[in-house]
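Protein fold
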Amino acid sequence: MSDAILSIAGLSKTYASGFSALKNVDLQIQRGEIFALLGPNGAGKTTLISIVCGIVNASTGKVTVDGHDIAADYRAARSLIGLVPQELTTDAFETVWNTASFSRGLFGKPANPAHIEKVLRDLSLWDKKDNQIRTLSGGMKRRLLIAKALAHEPQLLFLDEPTAGVDVTLRQEMWALVRALRDTGVTVILTTHYIDEAEEMADRIGVISKGEIILVENKVELMRKLGKKQLTLQLAQPLQQVPDALAVLPLALSANGGELTYTYDAKHEHSGIADLLQALDAEGIAFKDLKTSQSSLEDIFVSLVREKEQ
Protein backbone atom coordinates (compact mmCIF):
# COMPACT_ATOMS: atom_id res chain seq x y z
CA MET A 1 0.00 0.00 0.00
CA SER A 2 1.53 3.27 -1.07
CA ASP A 3 1.45 6.03 1.51
CA ALA A 4 0.84 8.89 -0.91
CA ILE A 5 -0.13 12.23 0.62
CA LEU A 6 -0.68 13.73 -2.83
CA SER A 7 -2.08 11.82 -5.77
CA ILE A 8 -2.37 13.40 -9.23
CA ALA A 9 -3.97 11.45 -12.07
CA GLY A 10 -4.49 12.43 -15.71
CA LEU A 11 -4.06 16.12 -14.99
CA SER A 12 -4.20 18.44 -17.99
CA LYS A 13 -4.61 22.19 -18.39
CA THR A 14 -5.40 23.87 -21.69
CA TYR A 15 -6.05 27.61 -21.66
CA ALA A 16 -8.70 29.36 -23.76
CA SER A 17 -5.95 30.47 -26.15
CA GLY A 18 -5.33 26.78 -26.92
CA PHE A 19 -2.03 26.72 -25.05
CA SER A 20 -1.55 23.36 -23.36
CA ALA A 21 0.31 24.02 -20.08
CA LEU A 22 0.02 20.47 -18.69
CA LYS A 23 -0.49 17.20 -20.53
CA ASN A 24 -1.84 14.15 -18.74
CA VAL A 25 0.33 14.38 -15.63
CA ASP A 26 0.37 11.44 -13.21
CA LEU A 27 2.29 11.85 -9.97
CA GLN A 28 2.29 10.31 -6.49
CA ILE A 29 4.07 12.13 -3.65
CA GLN A 30 4.91 9.99 -0.62
CA ARG A 31 4.34 11.22 2.92
CA GLY A 32 7.45 12.70 4.49
CA GLU A 33 9.58 13.03 1.38
CA ILE A 34 11.26 16.01 -0.24
CA PHE A 35 10.30 15.96 -3.91
CA ALA A 36 11.91 18.30 -6.43
CA LEU A 37 10.05 19.14 -9.61
CA LEU A 38 12.77 20.19 -11.97
CA GLY A 39 12.23 21.95 -15.25
CA PRO A 40 13.10 25.01 -17.30
CA ASN A 41 11.01 28.18 -17.02
CA GLY A 42 7.66 27.71 -18.73
CA ALA A 43 7.69 23.93 -18.33
CA GLY A 44 4.45 23.88 -16.29
CA LYS A 45 5.79 23.76 -12.72
CA THR A 46 3.81 26.72 -11.39
CA THR A 47 0.65 25.67 -13.25
CA LEU A 48 0.82 22.26 -11.58
CA ILE A 49 1.19 23.80 -8.11
CA SER A 50 -1.56 26.32 -8.82
CA ILE A 51 -4.00 23.53 -9.70
CA VAL A 52 -3.17 21.49 -6.59
CA CYS A 53 -3.60 24.63 -4.45
CA GLY A 54 -6.93 25.48 -6.07
CA ILE A 55 -5.75 28.73 -7.69
CA VAL A 56 -6.22 27.42 -11.25
CA ASN A 57 -8.84 24.92 -12.42
CA ALA A 58 -7.69 21.80 -14.25
CA SER A 59 -9.12 20.93 -17.68
CA THR A 60 -9.10 17.21 -16.89
CA GLY A 61 -7.81 14.93 -14.16
CA LYS A 62 -8.13 14.29 -10.45
CA VAL A 63 -6.07 15.48 -7.49
CA THR A 64 -6.39 14.19 -3.94
CA VAL A 65 -4.54 15.44 -0.86
CA ASP A 66 -4.46 12.88 1.95
CA GLY A 67 -7.59 11.31 0.45
CA HIS A 68 -9.49 14.61 -0.02
CA ASP A 69 -10.48 15.49 -3.58
CA ILE A 70 -9.44 19.10 -4.27
CA ALA A 71 -12.59 19.73 -6.31
CA ALA A 72 -15.23 17.90 -4.24
CA ASP A 73 -13.69 18.56 -0.82
CA TYR A 74 -11.80 21.78 -1.43
CA ARG A 75 -11.64 23.23 2.09
CA ALA A 76 -10.37 20.04 3.72
CA ALA A 77 -7.81 19.48 0.97
CA ARG A 78 -6.58 23.09 0.91
CA SER A 79 -6.20 23.30 4.70
CA LEU A 80 -3.58 20.52 4.47
CA ILE A 81 -1.47 22.54 2.01
CA GLY A 82 0.98 25.36 2.62
CA LEU A 83 2.12 27.36 -0.41
CA VAL A 84 5.23 29.53 -0.51
CA PRO A 85 4.88 31.54 -3.72
CA GLN A 86 7.72 33.32 -5.48
CA GLU A 87 6.42 36.80 -4.68
CA LEU A 88 5.26 38.42 -1.46
CA THR A 89 1.89 40.10 -1.99
CA THR A 90 1.07 41.47 1.45
CA ASP A 91 0.25 44.84 2.96
CA ALA A 92 3.63 46.50 3.42
CA PHE A 93 2.41 48.30 6.56
CA GLU A 94 1.23 45.14 8.30
CA THR A 95 3.43 43.63 11.03
CA VAL A 96 5.15 40.26 10.80
CA TRP A 97 3.09 38.89 13.70
CA ASN A 98 -0.26 39.99 12.26
CA THR A 99 0.59 38.69 8.79
CA ALA A 100 1.36 35.19 10.08
CA SER A 101 -1.62 35.16 12.48
CA PHE A 102 -4.04 36.37 9.81
CA SER A 103 -2.87 33.63 7.47
CA ARG A 104 -3.76 31.00 10.09
CA GLY A 105 -7.23 32.50 10.49
CA LEU A 106 -7.84 32.32 6.74
CA PHE A 107 -7.84 28.53 7.02
CA GLY A 108 -10.39 28.55 9.81
CA LYS A 109 -7.86 27.48 12.43
CA PRO A 110 -8.39 28.85 15.93
CA ALA A 111 -5.83 31.37 17.19
CA ASN A 112 -2.68 29.70 18.52
CA PRO A 113 -0.09 32.30 19.54
CA ALA A 114 2.29 29.58 20.76
CA HIS A 115 2.40 28.00 17.28
CA ILE A 116 2.90 31.37 15.55
CA GLU A 117 5.71 32.16 18.00
CA LYS A 118 7.38 28.80 17.31
CA VAL A 119 7.19 29.33 13.53
CA LEU A 120 8.64 32.84 13.78
CA ARG A 121 11.41 31.66 16.11
CA ASP A 122 12.26 28.73 13.79
CA LEU A 123 12.56 31.19 10.92
CA SER A 124 14.65 33.72 12.88
CA LEU A 125 11.82 36.26 12.61
CA TRP A 126 10.85 36.49 16.28
CA ASP A 127 12.81 39.67 16.99
CA LYS A 128 11.08 41.26 13.97
CA LYS A 129 7.55 40.28 15.02
CA ASP A 130 6.42 43.88 15.53
CA ASN A 131 8.18 45.25 12.44
CA GLN A 132 6.23 46.34 9.40
CA ILE A 133 6.89 44.21 6.33
CA ARG A 134 8.27 47.19 4.39
CA THR A 135 11.22 47.37 6.84
CA LEU A 136 12.32 43.76 6.18
CA SER A 137 15.24 42.70 3.99
CA GLY A 138 14.64 40.47 0.97
CA GLY A 139 15.77 37.40 2.91
CA MET A 140 13.45 38.21 5.82
CA LYS A 141 10.53 38.67 3.42
CA ARG A 142 11.29 35.27 1.92
CA ARG A 143 11.19 33.76 5.42
CA LEU A 144 7.92 35.52 6.16
CA LEU A 145 6.40 33.85 3.09
CA ILE A 146 7.33 30.51 4.67
CA ALA A 147 5.94 31.59 8.07
CA LYS A 148 2.63 32.47 6.41
CA ALA A 149 2.54 29.07 4.70
CA LEU A 150 3.26 27.23 7.97
CA ALA A 151 0.87 29.25 10.15
CA HIS A 152 -2.01 26.79 9.73
CA GLU A 153 0.13 23.66 10.30
CA PRO A 154 -0.04 22.15 6.80
CA GLN A 155 1.01 18.56 6.07
CA LEU A 156 2.17 19.35 2.55
CA LEU A 157 4.34 22.36 1.77
CA PHE A 158 4.90 23.72 -1.74
CA LEU A 159 7.93 25.91 -2.34
CA ASP A 160 7.73 27.52 -5.78
CA GLU A 161 11.28 28.40 -6.86
CA PRO A 162 12.26 29.03 -3.22
CA THR A 163 15.71 30.41 -3.89
CA ALA A 164 15.25 32.23 -7.18
CA GLY A 165 17.18 35.46 -6.91
CA VAL A 166 18.50 34.97 -3.37
CA ASP A 167 22.13 34.91 -2.34
CA VAL A 168 24.13 31.79 -1.56
CA THR A 169 23.96 32.19 2.23
CA LEU A 170 20.20 32.45 2.20
CA ARG A 171 19.94 29.46 -0.13
CA GLN A 172 21.92 27.35 2.36
CA GLU A 173 19.65 28.58 5.18
CA MET A 174 16.54 27.73 3.16
CA TRP A 175 17.84 24.24 2.47
CA ALA A 176 18.55 23.67 6.18
CA LEU A 177 15.06 24.91 6.97
CA VAL A 178 13.44 22.58 4.44
CA ARG A 179 15.25 19.61 5.98
CA ALA A 180 14.14 20.68 9.45
CA LEU A 181 10.53 20.88 8.25
CA ARG A 182 10.75 17.41 6.75
CA ASP A 183 12.10 16.16 10.08
CA THR A 184 8.90 17.42 11.75
CA GLY A 185 6.84 15.30 9.35
CA VAL A 186 5.96 17.89 6.68
CA THR A 187 6.09 16.64 3.09
CA VAL A 188 7.90 19.16 0.90
CA ILE A 189 7.55 19.71 -2.84
CA LEU A 190 9.84 22.28 -4.36
CA THR A 191 9.96 23.47 -7.92
CA THR A 192 13.28 24.64 -9.20
CA HIS A 193 15.35 25.16 -12.30
CA TYR A 194 18.52 25.03 -10.22
CA ILE A 195 19.95 21.57 -10.69
CA ASP A 196 22.15 21.82 -7.60
CA GLU A 197 19.07 22.55 -5.49
CA ALA A 198 17.40 19.32 -6.59
CA GLU A 199 20.64 17.39 -6.18
CA GLU A 200 21.23 18.82 -2.71
CA MET A 201 17.71 18.59 -1.30
CA ALA A 202 15.50 15.99 -2.87
CA ASP A 203 14.79 12.34 -2.13
CA ARG A 204 13.09 11.99 -5.50
CA ILE A 205 13.20 14.13 -8.60
CA GLY A 206 10.59 14.65 -11.28
CA VAL A 207 11.60 16.26 -14.56
CA ILE A 208 8.94 18.31 -16.36
CA SER A 209 9.32 19.70 -19.87
CA LYS A 210 6.64 21.38 -22.00
CA GLY A 211 3.86 20.32 -19.63
CA GLU A 212 4.79 16.64 -19.49
CA ILE A 213 6.49 14.72 -16.72
CA ILE A 214 9.28 12.97 -18.59
CA LEU A 215 10.79 11.16 -15.63
CA VAL A 216 10.29 10.52 -11.91
CA GLU A 217 13.12 8.79 -10.14
CA ASN A 218 14.84 8.32 -6.83
CA LYS A 219 17.77 10.75 -6.92
CA VAL A 220 20.49 8.21 -6.20
CA GLU A 221 18.98 5.82 -8.73
CA LEU A 222 18.77 8.58 -11.32
CA MET A 223 22.43 9.42 -10.90
CA ARG A 224 23.35 5.75 -11.10
CA LYS A 225 21.14 4.99 -14.07
CA LEU A 226 22.01 7.94 -16.23
CA GLY A 227 25.39 8.99 -14.93
CA LYS A 228 28.35 8.64 -17.22
CA LYS A 229 31.75 8.36 -15.64
CA GLN A 230 34.97 9.62 -17.10
CA LEU A 231 38.52 8.54 -16.41
CA THR A 232 41.06 11.21 -17.32
CA LEU A 233 44.68 10.16 -17.70
CA GLN A 234 47.47 12.72 -17.66
CA LEU A 235 50.00 11.35 -20.11
CA ALA A 236 53.73 11.30 -19.50
CA GLN A 237 54.27 12.25 -23.17
CA PRO A 238 51.69 14.09 -25.33
CA LEU A 239 50.09 12.16 -28.19
CA GLN A 240 49.39 13.55 -31.66
CA GLN A 241 46.40 11.24 -32.04
CA VAL A 242 44.76 8.19 -30.49
CA PRO A 243 46.67 5.12 -31.79
CA ASP A 244 44.76 2.91 -34.25
CA ALA A 245 44.87 -0.02 -31.82
CA LEU A 246 42.83 2.08 -29.34
CA ALA A 247 40.50 3.71 -31.88
CA VAL A 248 37.61 1.35 -31.03
CA LEU A 249 37.51 2.63 -27.43
CA PRO A 250 35.54 5.74 -26.32
CA LEU A 251 38.64 7.89 -25.96
CA ALA A 252 39.24 11.60 -26.51
CA LEU A 253 42.45 13.60 -26.50
CA SER A 254 42.58 17.03 -24.88
CA ALA A 255 45.03 19.53 -23.36
CA ASN A 256 47.14 19.54 -26.56
CA GLY A 257 47.44 15.77 -26.52
CA GLY A 258 48.47 15.71 -22.86
CA GLU A 259 45.24 14.18 -21.53
CA LEU A 260 43.32 11.11 -22.59
CA THR A 261 39.69 10.83 -21.44
CA TYR A 262 37.84 7.52 -21.36
CA THR A 263 34.04 7.65 -21.00
CA TYR A 264 32.20 4.64 -19.63
CA ASP A 265 28.83 3.74 -18.23
CA ALA A 266 28.69 3.92 -14.45
CA LYS A 267 25.83 1.42 -14.32
CA HIS A 268 27.72 -1.42 -15.99
CA GLU A 269 29.60 -3.87 -13.82
CA HIS A 270 32.33 -4.09 -16.43
CA SER A 271 33.84 -0.63 -16.87
CA GLY A 272 36.56 -1.73 -19.28
CA ILE A 273 39.20 0.24 -17.37
CA ALA A 274 41.44 -2.79 -16.82
CA ASP A 275 41.36 -3.53 -20.57
CA LEU A 276 42.12 0.11 -21.35
CA LEU A 277 45.15 0.17 -19.05
CA GLN A 278 46.45 -3.07 -20.58
CA ALA A 279 46.00 -1.65 -24.08
CA LEU A 280 47.85 1.54 -23.12
CA ASP A 281 50.66 -0.52 -21.67
CA ALA A 282 50.89 -2.61 -24.84
CA GLU A 283 51.16 0.61 -26.88
CA GLY A 284 53.88 1.91 -24.57
CA ILE A 285 51.75 4.87 -23.47
CA ALA A 286 52.62 5.90 -19.92
CA PHE A 287 50.57 8.22 -17.70
CA LYS A 288 51.58 10.15 -14.61
CA ASP A 289 48.19 10.74 -13.02
CA LEU A 290 44.54 9.76 -13.37
CA LYS A 291 41.23 10.99 -12.01
CA THR A 292 37.60 9.97 -12.37
CA SER A 293 34.56 12.20 -12.54
CA GLN A 294 30.86 11.52 -12.79
CA SER A 295 28.34 13.50 -14.79
CA SER A 296 26.22 15.80 -12.67
CA LEU A 297 22.46 15.96 -12.58
CA GLU A 298 22.82 18.98 -14.89
CA ASP A 299 24.31 16.82 -17.66
CA ILE A 300 21.58 14.24 -17.15
CA PHE A 301 18.83 16.87 -17.20
CA VAL A 302 20.08 18.52 -20.38
CA SER A 303 20.32 15.18 -22.19
CA LEU A 304 16.80 14.15 -21.04
CA VAL A 305 15.17 17.37 -22.23
CA ARG A 306 17.10 17.19 -25.51
CA GLU A 307 15.98 13.59 -26.09
CA LYS A 308 12.36 14.60 -25.47
CA GLU A 309 12.57 17.41 -27.99
CA GLN A 310 13.97 15.28 -30.80
